[in-house]
Amino acid sequence: MAKKINELYPSLEEIKRATRGALLYLLLVIPVIGAFYGLVKGDIKGFILDSIGIGILIGAIQLAKKGFWEEYLYNKRKYSKKPFPYKIAGGILLGVALVYYGIISHLGLSTLLSGLIGLVGGYFLLYGVDPLKDKLPPMREGTGEVALQVLEEATQKLEEARKLAQKVKNPHLRKELIEVIQLGDDILSKLEEKPDDIEKMRKFLIVFVDSLLEVTKSYREVEEVISPQREEEFLNLLNQVKNRFVREMEKLKEKKIVNFDINVELLRREITR
C-alpha cells in the first residue's frame, strides 16, 4: 500500500523542483492588471505596451526555470558538462524587462537604477548563477572529455526514450519499455562509479541506446495501427533486450567487460528488425 501511495503523490524533491521560481510569477501581477485595465479603458496603445512587457517577463521566467532544471540534472549526475547559462540569461532578461517598464513609465534614472540593482541583484542572490565547470571523470588526460560525452549522449537519449515510452497506451508495453530504460540508467550509474570502463563499453552504449530510442520512436509512430501479433513480437523483443541488459549488469558487477562488444551487431539487428 505504501508503494502505491508514493506513486500517487509527488516526492518532496519533485515539489521543490516544480515550485522553484514561483516567486517570479508575482512580477506578472501588476503588469497583467495594468494591461487588463488599459483594455477595459480602451487604451489600446497602453495594452500593447504592457503586453510586450509581459512577454519579456514570461521569457525571463521560462529561461530561469529551464536553468533550474538543468542545474538539477547537473547536480544529480556524478559527471556532467556545465549547462548553458539559462539562469544568467533569465536574470539579464529580467533586467531588460525592468528597463523597458522604466522607459514606458518615464521613471527617473536613479529610480530605475535602484530598481534594477534590487530586482536583478535579488534574483541572483536568491537563485545563484548556473554551474560554470564541467564535472569530468578522473581519467587519464584527454579521455575524461570523451567519457563525459558518451555519458551525456546516452543519458539524453535514454531520457528522450523515457518520455516517448510514457506516452505508450498499452500499459504492459509501457511498463516493459520503462523498465528497460531504467536498466540503461542503472548501467550508466554503475559506470560513473568506475569511469575507466566507459571506453570499453562505448560501442555498446552507442549502439544500444540509439537502437532503443529508434525502436521506441518506431512503435509510437505505428501504435494506432499495429496488429496484436506484431505487438506481441515487440513485447518478446523487449524481453530479450531486458535479459541482455541484466546480463551486462552482472558483468559489470563481476568486472568482466573485456569482450563486452561481442554480438553488439546482433543486438542491433534484433532490436531494429
In a few lines, what is going on in this structure?
This protein is mainly α and 273 residues long. Helices cover 75% and strands 0% of the residues.
Helical region count? 11
Q: Percent of residues in beta strands?
A: under 5%
Instruction: Output mean pLDDT.
Output: 76
User: Assembly state here?
Assistant: single chain
Tally of separate domains: 2
Total DSSP E strands: 0
Poorly predicted runs of 5 or more residues = 1-9, 257-264
Task: Give the topology string: H per helix, E per strand.
Answer: HHHHHHHHHHH
| Coarse morphology | elongated
Radius of gyration, taken over Cα atoms and rounded to an integer in Å:
25 Å
Helix content: over 70%
Distance between the termini: 40 Å
Key words describing this protein structure:
elongated, 273 residues, 2 domains, mainly alpha
What does this structure look like?
- This protein is mostly helical.
- It has 2 domains: 13-127, no CATH class; 144-272.
- Helices cover 75% and strands 0% of the residues.
- It has helices spanning 2-8, 12-19, 29-41, 44-76, 86-104, 109-127, 144-165, 171-193, 198-222, 228-254, 264-272.
- It is elongated.
